[in-house]
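Tutorial handout. Part one gives the primary structure; part two gives the three-dimensional structure as tokens.
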Amino acid sequence: MTMDFTDQQFIFAGEIAHYVALVLNITMTSAAMIGWPSKSAYDSWWTPHGFCVVEDNATIPTEFLCFFSLTSSAVIAFVLSKRKKRLKDENPLLMERIQSSVFANAAHGFGHAFLWFMGFAAPPLEISLQPAAVANIIMLVSFWVGTLRNVVGLPIKHAATMSIFVLTVQYHLRVPPELAFTYSQSIILLGGSLDQLRRKDDYSKNNGFLFFTTSLYTLPLLVLYYLEMFWCSSSFLSKFGGHAIYDLYLSLVPFALYYAVIENKKKKGE
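Part two.
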């Protein structure tokens, strides 16, 4: 039972989960970037997009399912954050997690809608004065500033600087358009884990359980992403929307986290 563990024990367990996630994240992203063990090992439904898109007999397009679940989650989380005003005073760290999911899931959802509109082809990152290239850079900088502010908690000045750094690395690594999602996912998950580890002392008083449950967030994503890379068309993913399963998980996490933390506090009599 959760009440058998102290905040420090939860934080220690959460640290282990974060470090495991960091190692797996870096390993899987590096493998995808260099095509290890061989490019032919990756699933044919994953390769053109960098995520699992159901290509055969899809009743509803994968991108629409992703957009619908993520934006619905963002709207509900926004309403929840407005209706649970007392939560901001009672548990500001939990409210912070709920509020950060609003932008993160909305941006992610509209990103899928954009790719669907573009025909699944993410435009390449180019340094050019051509209108399309300039518009793409502005869009990417806006996305990263918003993401780094809301997910990692950086002030706008630092978020702007980091967004330029992230895009500079992407440009110099020559990340192909089909791996833009993989690269972005890696940076977001990496930043999220590092931010949590940096702020672990903030959770040391009565919020160790929240730190622990948050630390578990990344691990199922990496399992799903592994399945997408190698078994997209031959696993259960092909029957349930492909990458939509990944995004459904993202959509449900804020509410599962809220319920778990509130129930834990009830059991502890707080």
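Part three, for discussion. Residues 46 and 183 are 14 Å apart (CA to CA). The mean pLDDT is 91.
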